[in-house]
């Protein structure tokens, strides 16, 4: 029996900076998961992933990541995605510093 499709976002790494980025509904990339386009239909998600993969001048390693819908927007459902969105954990800098000061 096929697995039921769950909500997803397109994520990748920005080509120049390496930051984790998410595709938005207006075809731009954001560093905030809360601004990402959430896809609930498998065909649409596959199309958006193909569009992201067609932007090698902007991003690398695009893929679909599972999310759960919350009142604050999409939230990661897997440890890896939660870790990626907060950035390196070796010391308090960059995105980690921003999240800790909010």
UniProtKB/TrEMBL annotation:
InterPro entries, sorted: DUF2849
Region (Disordered): 74-102
A Pfam family it matches: DUF2849
Protein name: Sulfite reductase
Native source species: Roseovarius aestuarii
